[in-house]
C-alpha cells in the first residue's frame, strides 16, 4: 500500500479529504494547491493487478461506454485544424489525412484520405478498440501499450496487434515516431499521468495529435451519486480530473489544446442501478432508467480533449 502520495500535477505534498469511500481501505483526496483528485492511500503496482479481473475489458460496463469510443476517434477529423495568431494552422500532411480518414464523412474532410500513419493506443486492453481503428483506417499502422499481460496476449492473439507490455514511460519507444497517441479511458489508471503525457510529447512528431478521454469528477452525476458513482472505479482509477486540472496537465507537458468537450451519456446512472449500488425497490428501477436516459444528456460524465504537440 502506498500512502502520502505527492500530487502528480504540481508536486505538492499537501492534500485535503475529497470523498470518503466506505468499506474499502482507500480514500479520495484533492491537492490543496491545484485541486487534482487522486487516491491516497492506493495499492502498490504489485498489489494493483489483483483488482483487474480477466473479463475486465469485456465487462458490461466496458460495453456501455463503447459508443463513446467511436465518437472519440471520428470527431478527430473535424478537429484537424487548430487556430493560431495567424489564423488557421493545419496539422502536418500525414496527421491531417489520418484525422480526416477517421471521420469517414466525405463532406467534412479537410484533406484527402491518407495512405499511411502511425497511431499508438495507450491502455489498449484486449485490443478490440485498437483493431477497430486499424480496420477502419486504411493504410494505418496501429500499435498498443498495455500493462496487463493477459489483456495484451488477447490483443496479440485475437487481433494480431503489436502490443508493448509495460508502462509507457518505461518502454523507451523511438522518438518522434507517431502521428497520434490516444488515451481512451486509460490516463486515470496510470501511476503518473503527467509522465505519460510527457512521454507522449517525446514520441509524437511535430504537430502530432494527443487524444484523451477521461471521466469528469466535477459532473453533477458524480456529485449526486457520490461514493457509488461507477466511474470512481476504486482502486483502478488512481486519478480523477476536472476540466481545469486536465487542461493544466496537458499544457504543462508541451501541448496546445485545440478542443475540450464534455461527453454526455447515461452509462453511470444505469450501471449504478443495474449493479444495485443505488438501492431501489424493483418497481422504481424502470422509472429511474427512463430518467437516466433523459438526464444523461446533461450529465457531462467525461472529458474529451484533442491537443497538438508544440515545438520544444
List keywords for this structure.
single chain, 312 residues, Rossmann fold, alpha/beta, four-stranded antiparallel β-sheet, 11 helices, seven-stranded mixed β-sheet
Rounded to an integer, what's the Rg over CA atoms? Answer: 19 Å
Spatial order of the strands in the main sheet?
A: 8-7-6-9-10-13-12
Structural class: alpha/beta
Helix content: 25-40%
Total beta strand runs: 13
Q: What string gives the helices and strands in order?
A: EEEHHHEEHEHEHEEHEHEHEHHE
Instruction: Give the tally of structural domains.
Output: 1
- Name the CATH homologous superfamily: Vaccinia Virus protein VP39
Distinct helical segment count:
11
Principal-axes shape call: globular
Kindly estimate the percentage of residues that lie in beta strands according to DSSP.
15-25%
The low-confidence runs, each spanning 5 or more residues with pLDDT under 50, are 77-91, 103-115
- CATH level-1 class: Alpha Beta
CATH architectural type: 3-Layer(aba) Sandwich
CATH topology: Rossmann fold
